[in-house]
Amino acid sequence: MAAQKILIPLDESIQSREILKVVQRFFHPEESHLILLQVVYPELEALEIPPAHAAREWTSTIFDYLEKYQSLEHEHHVERQKLLKADILAGLTKEATSLINEGYQVTPVVRFGHALEQIEAYIKESRVDLVAMVTHAREGIGRLLFGSVAGALVHDLPVPVLLLHPTVRETNNHKFQLMVD
Fold it and tell me: Is 179 within 8 Å of 20 (Cβ atoms)?
């Protein structure tokens, strides 16, 4: 029997890792292939050539310089992405060690782009059976400004989605994040 592919989207937060405990509780190592996916949103760093009306008095030398600058900046950006990807992949691999020691098959993956688009693309490409992730529990203006990747996935995906919604309890006017044991 082939192992069930479980995609676990992670971000830079510690909170996103809480889903790993839930997955370990409900899915056996010999039946599960865990895919740890971290999506990094790329920063646009290259200087763009302005539209003609803004650069009417520029000489061809300035345009040549900008084209060279864009090329160099692009190469620099690509190199930085390679280093960032290697660092994140190393971190995911280190995190996967305890799962591997428990017998899970684990594949760490790093992609660049918009989280929702990259998660959806990976699911289609890799024929994932289940997505397991933590929500950020954003409400109100936070949800409006930052959106909800988890919410969009629940509505758009043809595969089941297991969501862990972080719970908060108040004691003596202090809020505590409850973690999964």
Answer: no
Q: Where are the beta strands (DSSP E) in the chain?
A: 4-10, 32-40, 105-112, 130-134, 161-164, 168-171, 174-177
Give the distance, in angstroms, between the CA of residue 78 and the centroid of all CA atoms in the same chain. Answer: 19
The per-residue pLDDT for 44 is: 45
pLDDT digits (tens, 9 = 90+) for 126-177: 999 999 988 865 444 434 333 456 555 665 667 888 888 776 444 444 444 4
State how far the Cα of 131 lies from the Cα of 158, in Å rounded to an integer.
10
Contacts of 63 (CB under 8 A, 6+ apart): 49, 55
* Cα 23 from Cα 143, distance rounded (Å): 26
- With H, G, I as helix, E, B as strand and everything else as coil, classify residue 168: strand
Q: Pick out the chain residues at pLDDT < 70.
A: 1, 42-74, 136-157, 167-181
Q: Which helix or strand (DSSP H or E) is residue 115 part of?
A: helix 115-126
Encoded amino acid at 160, one letter: P
